[in-house]
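Dear support,

Our group has been running a series of protein-ligand predictions, and this particular one with manganese (II) ion is the one our PI (initials K.S.) wants archived with full inputs and outputs. We had some confusion internally about which version of the output was final, so please treat the block below as the authoritative record. The input we submitted was:
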Amino acid sequence: MKYYILNRGDQYSQELTQTFKTLARQRGLIWDQEEPDIVVTVGGDGTMLQAFHTFSDQLDRLAFVGIHTGHLGFYADWKPSELHQLVERMSDPDTRLEQHVVKYPIAEVQINRIDESLTYYALNELTLRGIHATLVVQLNVNDQRFETFRGDGICISTPSGSTAYNKSAGGAIIHPSLETIQIAEIASINNKVYRSLGSSMILPKHHHCDLYPKANQKILLSIDHLKFEYDDIISIRAMVGDKKVRFARFRPFPFWNRVKEAFIGDGE
Ligand code: NAP
Ligand code: MN
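Confirmed final output from the archive:
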């Protein structure tokens, strides 16, 4: 089994990375930067976002595993104390990676600018926000005009991203077995003149939505932790991606348990 490991860069995450590499070498795992079977992250969910974008061209073949060195993460859900156990699972000759992989939907984002078109995949979400003024954007669903949104921004999230920015925007938490994207408003202006839906909407696979920002508007587009500033966007299309991201689970940790541990805790 070939692996690659990346970390958040703080001292603890770096030390843990060294420990992992030593154990991995002893157990015959091969470090491979180009075509690993498993990408291990040490840090937080943000570290997983970086790993996802580093290897987004190999999503079909590799699987991710996250170790958290801070609070429990949604992607980074292995404790530092479980490091030995993880290396053992990865190096066990009886381990068939395919049997331990869970697949989560991701979002496909097509950015149409005046003279180029770009495609990205988002693990958490894309957001569109105004830079100097309120964002004004027309939202079409399946090529039909739905509304013109005015406010701070729009967040379009994946199921596994629903616990991130989407949650702060008041969106629902979606189980990653559902192939959907969720459109949530960020502080919309609603009065006699401006009107948008107000609640979040969930689109199934094979539906798509397009955002048409008002002409010449300076906008901030984020795709996970990546940020882009544009003033020449014609439209941005979002839909459930044709690919999925693969996580090597090795041991059960149900999504709703992670939600409870992260947001509710053990109290009454
Ligand atoms: P960051 O500012 O360090 O991340 C913000 C927080 O979001 C961190 O606590 C991060 O966890 C957590 N997070 C990331 N993915 C998550 C997920 N799927 N479920 C629950 N929490 C999650 O920046 P970053 O680490 O590069 O992460 C970028 C993400 O931050 C974006 O994708 C967006 O979802 C989120 N964000 C949220 C808000 C908001 O809620 N108002 C605003 C901006 C960005 P770790 O500490 O483990 O990294
Ligand atoms: Mn972070």
